[in-house]
Write a structure and sequence with these properties.
- Keywords: Zinc.
- It comes from Micromonospora globbae.
- The chain has 249 residues and is α/β, with parallel strands linked by helices.
- The protein is built from seven helices and eight strands; from the N terminus they run E-E-H-E-H-E-H-E-H-E-E-H-H-H-E.
- It is globular.
């Protein structure tokens, strides 16, 4: 059986200063993208995090209200390790997110407040590998809503009730980047910040302790993602992104 050809990745643009990362759960960014975020904050770029849920349904042995507190704090600690000091939680219910107008509305408001040039999310395709490794429903709903919310945020006639007290429409998002997509054609070198990405994932201590038999190795897992991506970029470690362009319209 012939192995699929892994095409080279094109570097993402880095001529921007403000980004907003919107994902479904605490830990979503840390499974790869955090090393890239550490690179960019090290360049002086400003990045804010928005977590749609608090991941309260993500630890089987801990009741949701207690898990909410733990996971929000772990996310703040994790973000700080990669230079992010703005972390917001929308408080929507973990595990049962639905794509639709309410989710688009909530994300559009965040985009309008932060006015980013780049919006980062995680893979929202049906699978992680383009074949068998099924994605999770919250990731799919959130990513789809992010794309539409970015467009919504730039239209003054969509969710106009948000445009009060100085909040204005924002049509300045140039691109949306979905990390770890099986359709990724772009990437970024994270060789120098890989260790910070590992540290940020390890900060989700309670969540990781509940995975499988408790023997999850953050460095080993992330290296398994970063090395093949780095090869496609011609570097040691990389993070891959599927790029959606809004600056062509």
């Amino acid at each position: 059986m012939t192995e699929p050809t892994m095409l080279p990745l094109e570097p993402v643009t880095e001529d921007w200063q403000r980004a907003l990362a919107v994902v479904a759960h605490p830990d979503d960014l840390e499974f790869g993208a955090a090393a890239a975020i550490a690179r960019w904050t090290g360049q002086g770029k400003r990045i804010a995090y928005c977590l749609v849920t608090s991941g309260e349904a993500g630890i089987d042995g801990i009741p949701p209200e207690r898990a909410r507190q733990i996971r929000e704090q772990e996310q703040r600690d994790s973000a700080a390790l990669v230079g992010v000091d703005t972390v917001e939680f929308l408080g929507l219910p973990d595990g049962v997110l639905e794509y639709g107008v309410p989710l688009r509305r909530a994300i559009a408001e965040v985009v309008r407040r932060h006015r980013p040039e780049i919006v980062i999310t995680t893979n929202f395709r049906e699978t992680w590998d383009g074949a068998y490794a099924l994605n999770q429903a919250d990731h799919i709903a959130t990513g789809r809503a992010v794309l539409d919310a970015v467009r919504d945020a730039g239209n003054r006639w969509v969710f106009p009730e948000q445009l009060t007290d100085g909040l204005e429409r924002w049509a300045g998002v140039r691109q949306v980047w979905a990390a770890a997509s099986p359709l990724a054609a772009h990437g970024v070198d994270v060789t120098d910040t890989f260790d910070r990405g590992v540290a940020s994932l390890r900060a989700h201590e309670a969540y990781l302790a509940g995975l499988g038999d408790g023997g999850f190795d953050a460095e080993e897992f992330l290296e398994g993602l970063a090395r093949p991506t780095g090869t496609r970029l011609g570097v040691r470690y990389g993070v891959a992104f599927e790029v959606f362009r809004f600056d062509l319209w």
